[in-house]
Design a protein that fits this description.
By secondary structure, the chain is mainly α. The chain has 25 helices and 5 strands. The protein has a 5-stranded mixed β-sheet. Helix 4 packs antiparallel against helix 6 and helix 17 packs across helix 18. The radius of gyration is 31 Å and the shape is globular. About 11% of the residues have low confidence.
């Protein structure tokens, strides 16, 4: 079975007729090196699906025996070829760390997207949702589309974060993963959003900042796609965007960057006139984005920071009134978002109390509300929805049938008992770990009360009582009631927290919490304008530099 591999980087094109079963990494390296005019194949690094392909057996055998298919390369895989220079011995370690980190980023984004796209109960106390620019939640196509878009957006946000930190090489890798995610989507789903074209511009910006001329042909294609995509998403002359954004001009900096990059590519491919036009247009936008000192100090005198004031003036074509309206609106949006987040957090906590459906989904709170409105008790209705996979009609049947209704009650009761027992056992473990003797701890809990009271009892108990552990046991057996209700309803939140901790621990152990938190933070720090919020200083210098190069080239060619 012959496969095709798509190669990008030092050489862009498709390798046909690749036999995955008997080609090794060294064969592929040689092929790519030959096409990249690189004498020594060892300097070619191949990256597939976010990791560097290495034939670990290189060291053990003279002919590394791992085939491409054993290394996970499939038909139509995308492979990124990069060049490493001979003196990079030490940086292999760095590269290895970097590729491990990239693999973690990909895995965390995949895990988050899978959990948040299909209505499963989030393990975190937040929910990731896709919103449009006006902050409305969007359901995109199928579950696969939703997941792919979510993953693309997360990786794009991470890539931007890396660009901000000047780490263009890793940013490029992460953006490539993001591009891959978006490519899984139905094109119809994403043609009206500008995230994909912006991602293309960000990738070419990385090439430019890495001053990597080899990417030129690729950069030219990407910029064409980006321009077409932005025109589709923003409408002719950005009319659609202007309507969405209430007459604002958020996209000027983005267009400036696009035109600068188009000018650079045109220059290096010898199209001087095209380059001059693109750069001149970029320069006009650069001038348009320079914030006048008076306007800035006016907005700042209203109590806004320099960064926010500048951003607002740029987005509003330097109009002071517009900028202040924008800042007031932004603040209101932030507050509203915070309230929504807190509400969602409470909802997730509530959903966790009801448990998950057979297919591991959360109880649908909208449907639960409907059932409560008709007059059913909330916990019963939730249990009915849970066992019926959120099917309202079936849940109603169960609630109105006396037999199944009492069955629901039994289930709720037993879940409550289970939860209390779990909470109590876990609390006992915690207290035992503090160094108290187990039998004393158990006895202290039997007397009831919350965690503080139990700890108080344990620390205040005189030693004499310790000698006769039998003292309390008769008192407890008079009604036999105390043991069946181990924790009163009023147990303090301390115990509830302990309980939640225990539940979470059992649920999942291979979650890369650190990386997931990092990705979530990258998203949380963004807003509808983050993509357009570009400080254009580097661009300004580059425009000047390239315009003078165009002039020089024009003179010498005459």
């Amino acid at each position: 079975m012959m496969a095709k591999l798509k190669i990008a980087g030092t050489w862009s094109g498709v390798l046909e007729e690749v036999n995955l079963e008997n080609w090794t990494i060294s064969c592929l390296r040689e092929e790519v090196a030959k096409r990249s005019n690189c004498e020594n194949p060892h300097f070619i690094n191949l990256i597939c699906a976010g990791r560097i392909l290495k034939d670990d057996d290189d060291h053990h055998h003279h002919n590394g025996t791992l085939t491409l298919s054993q290394l996970g390369v499939k038909n139509n895989s995308k492979i990124l070829a990069t060049l490493s220079s001979p003196q990079q011995g030490h940086s292999l370690v760095v590269q290895e760390q970097s590729s491990q980190r990239l693999a973690r980023i990909r895995a965390a984004a995949t895990a988050l997207a899978e959990r948040h796209a299909d209505g499963s109960l989030p393990l975190e106390d937040f929910n990731i949702e896709v919103e449009d620019q006006s902050g409305q939640k969007v359901r995109l196509g199928s579950e696969i589309d939703q997941r792919a878009v979510m993953m693309g957006l997360m990786l794009h946000a991470k890539g931007k974060h890396l660009i901000k930190g000047g780490n263009y090489k890793d940013a490029l890798e992460v953006l490539t993963m993001g591009e891959e995610s978006f490519s899984i989507c139905d094109p119809k789903v994403i043609e009206l959003i500008d995230n994909v074209p912006i991602l293309q511009i960000d990738m070419v910006w990385c090439y430019f900042m890495l001053r990597d001329i080899r990417w030129l042909s690729d950069a030219g294609k990407r910029l064409e796609m980006a321009r077409a995509g932005i025109e589709r998403a923003h409408g002719k002359d950005s009319l659609r965007l202007r309507l969405l954004q209430g007459g604002r001009y958020p996209e000027v900096a983005l267009h400036l960057r696009l035109e600068l990059l188009e000018g650079v590519v045109a220059f290096h491919t010898g199209q001087l006139e095209k380059s001059r036009q693109a750069l001149a247009s970029a320069r006009a936008k650069f001038v348009q984005l320079q914030v006048p000192v008076e306007a800035l100090s006016l907005v700042m005198s209203m109590g806004y920071s320099q960064r926010n004031a500048k951003r607002a003036l740029r987005m509003n074509n330097q109009d002071v009134g517009g900028a202040i309206d924008f800042l007031v609106e932004e603040k209101a949006k932030k507050l509203q978002k915070r309230e929504e987040d807190l509400k969602r957090r409470d909802e997730i906590w509530e959903q966790k109390q009801y448990g998950v459906t057979p297919l591991k989904k959360a109880v649908d709170l909208e449907r639960l509300k409907e059932l409560v409105t008709i007059g059913f008790e909330k916990k019963l209705a939730a249990e009915a929805l849970r066992r019926n996979e959120n099917d309202t009609q079936k849940a109603l049947d169960d609630l109105t049938n006396p037999e199944t209704n009492s069955d629901l009650q039994v289930k709720i009761e037993s879940r409550k008992m289970k939860r209390q027992k779990k909470a109590k056992d876990s609390a006992i473990e915690k207290v035992v770990q503090m160094g108290f003797e187990r039998s004393r701890v158990v006895a202290a809990f039997e007397e009831g009360g919350n965690l503080e009271e139990v700890l108080q009892r344990l620390t205040a108990q005189p030693l004499a009582e310790n000698m006769q552990p039998q003292v309390n046991s008769t008192a407890a057996s008079d009604g036999g009631g105390s043991s069946s209700n181990p924790l009163p309803e009023t147990a303090s939140s301390g115990i509830v927290d302990l309980m939640n901790e225990v539940e979470d621990l059992n649920e999942i152990d291979e979650r890369d919490v650190e990386m997931e938190d990092e990705l979530s933070a990258d998203i949380a720090n963004g807003d509808a304008f983050t993509d357009y919020d570009i400080e254009v200083n580097i661009e300004g210098e580059a425009i000047t530099e390239y315009l003078s190069m165009v002039e020089t080239a024009a003179i010498t060619s005459k």
